[in-house]
Write a structure and sequence with these properties.
This protein is 52% helix and 15% strand. The chain has ten helices and ten strands. Bound molecules: acetoacetyl-coenzyme A (CAA).
Length: 379
């Protein structure tokens, strides 16, 4: 057993860390406050080949592994959770299902543009009344001649209105439940496909979250991924990988909050000495660091399973639930270490508290992760 990164993983970690510190961290507070989608970062991320880290170079990716991809998300989230969300949803939800299930034409047409960062991707399963109960989705896709006609709406779509292509799940045969769903690629600008207003969120405010509306939206017959009926399984498998991305985002938020707490504890003087010398602060720092390290092992281990062709659904769920709860614990403690200053926008830890919350909710709540874990043990 080895507990060290490979040369390539270390190289990617250093590259992303430097980029995050020089290009992302300086704008993180401003884009959060103004709810501004950081358009200017996307070409820079593409230039560094960070928009398709786990995809082969032949299709425009960086040719690295999933561990490297999660390190990328972790390092981005350490500086800015919104930027990490944009890249994670693009890479593991917007690109992966096309890479994994797309035919040769779809690979050529979409994966190259997505993995190279020329296009931004998104994924849409959730609907206004189908969140955790994804199987109750109502959006339909009906074959009419050589076109699918899509009707319905999707809710809480990360990168909504910003992405160029969307993988959407719709019912092709409502009588068959989860076996009557298909996965489709819909391009921005297709007639009948529109966006609602961006949500005003508690955290990850610089990522754009909108509803999608489909009103007699016609797409070519060959815009389907795989066969009609495979959509739900494609969605679930996509989310297995996506959940690791969110786990890595949670890990990065936690690490960023710990970094800030350690720095502050050394600087802040009370009772004539830095608060870091107080046991009350030291124990908080110790608990934060220990949970972060445990999260990191779960996150990297889940990715390692995927890289090595081993099952990773349960491992991804364990990584996500643990890292998400750790991010919330650590961000909260980091504010406590900062005292009153931590409750203001002068320090990044109040943003960490707000950003951490979503990691317990999106791409499957912590309750869903526990359902997946228990389901795999008790089957
Ligand atoms: N891989 C492959 N197949 C899977 C699977 C997986 N991980 N999980 C389930 N399946 C299969 C099952 O084997 C079953 O197939 P069979 O009928 O052939 O046996 C089928 O899918 C149905 O499975 P379940 O009976 O377990 O389905 P369920 O209705 O009970 O749902 C659930 C289970 C885990 C709660 C699931 O609905 C779920 O994950 N819900 C949360 C959805 C979620 O994460 N939503 C976030 C979407 S992200 C988004 O939309 C936008 C964004 O920008 C973030």
């Amino acid at each position: 057993m080895k507990f060290e990164l490979t040369e390539i993983q270390s190289l990617i970690q250093n590259t992303v860390r430097e980029f995050a510190q020089t290009a992302v961290a300086p704008i993180a507070a401003e884009i959060d406050r103004s709810h501004r989608f950081p358009e200017e970062l996307l070409p820079k991320l593409a230039e560094l080949n960070l928009m398709g880290v786990p995809y082969p170079e032949e299709v425009g990716g960086a040719g690295a592994d999933y561990v490297s991809y999660l390190i990328t998300i972790e390092e981005l989230a350490r500086a800015c959770a919104s930027t990490a969300a944009i890249v994670s949803v693009h890479t593991s939800l917007g690109t992966w299902p096309i890479y994994q299930f797309g035919n040769q034409v779809q690979q050529e047409k979409y994966v190259k543009k997505l993995a190279s960062g020329e296009w931004l991707g998104a994924f849409a399963l959730t609907e206004p009344s189908a969140g955790t109960d994804a199987a109750s989705a109502k959006t339909t896709a009906v074959l009419d001649g050589d076109e699918w006609v899509i009707n319905g709406s999707k809710q809480f779509i990360t990168n909504g209105s910003k992405a160029d292509s969307y993988v959407i799940i719709a019912l092709t045969d409502p009588s068959k439940g989860t076996k009557g769903m298909g996965a489709f690629i819909v391009e921005k600008g297709t007639p009948g496909f529109t966006f609602g207003e961006p949500e005003h969120k508690m955290g990850i405010k610089a990522s754009c979250t909108t509803p999608l509306y489909f009103n007699d939206c016609r797409i070519p017959e060959d815009a389907i991924l795989g066969e009609p009926g495979q959509g739900f399984k494609i969605a679930m498998q996509t989310l297995d990988g996506g959940r690791m991305g969110i786990a890595a985002q949670a890990l990065g938020i936690a690490q960023g909050a710990l970094d800030a707490a350690v720095k502050y504890a050394k600087e802040r003087v009370q009772f004539g000495k830095p608060i870091a010398s107080q046991q009350a602060i030291q124990w908080m720092i110790a608990d934060m660091a220990t949970r972060i390290e445990a999260s990191r092992f779960l996150v990297y281990r889940a990715a390692w399973n995927k890289d090595n062709g081993l099952p990773y659904s349960k491992e991804a769920a364990m990584a996500k639930v643990y890292a998400a709860e750790t991010a919330n614990f650590v961000a909260n403690r980091a504010v406590q270490v900062h005292g009153g200053y931590g409750f203001t926008e002068h320090y990044p830890v109040e943003r960490a508290v707000r950003d951490a919350k979503i990691t317990e909710i999106y791409e499957g709540t912590s309750e869903v992760q526990r359902m997946v874990i228990a389901g795999s043990l008790l089957r």
